[in-house]
Amino acid sequence: MSSQSDRSDIQWQEILTPEEFHVLRQAGTERPFTGEYWDTTTEGVYACRACGSELFTSSTKFDAGCGWPSFFAPLAEERVRYISDQSMGMKRVEVRCASCDSHLGHVFEGEGFGTPTDLRYCINSLSLRLRGFEG
Questions:
Q1: Catalytic pick among 48, 51, 100, 122
Q2: pTM for this one?
Q3: What average pLDDT does the segment 3-28 reach?
């Protein structure tokens, strides 16, 4: 069986909604302040909506005021991968799921947030699925 990153666009379209496909597979971006998780404070683990790989935890989520879910670190560094992105006329760092190569969002550094890493992982809600903690 092929790995998830080897799926064709047609195979991804069969399992993702058109909006999810646009963000996850075509590196689209949802509008700010519209996503399911931009302001949630529910405790849990945020997994890749395409493949289920656990990527971020609620303990690293913070309110950056940007309209997208923001985290200061991934669950583990090997869960994500980084790609230089010079589209939109600026230099950015794209964040992708290491398991299925789906687009998650971007990471920004040095914005002055009082977080332990001084990083802001600006992630699309459509790229994530929140699994709440039991208890």
A1: 122
A2: 0.91
A3: 90
Strand-pair partners of 131: 45
Answer left, alpha or beta for residue 61, where phi above 0 means left and psi between -120 and 50 means alpha.
beta
* Residue 80 near residue 104, CB atoms below 8 Å: yes
- Residue pair 92/108 in contact by the 8 Å Cβ criterion: yes
Classify burial at 29, counting beta carbons within 10 Å of its beta carbon; exposed 0-12, middle 13-18, buried 19 or more: middle
Q: Report the topology of domain 4-132.
A: 2.170.150
97 as an active site residue: the answer is: no
Report domain extents, the chain: 4-132
Q: How far is CA 53 from CA 8, 68, 113, 123, in A?
A: 19, 20, 27, 15
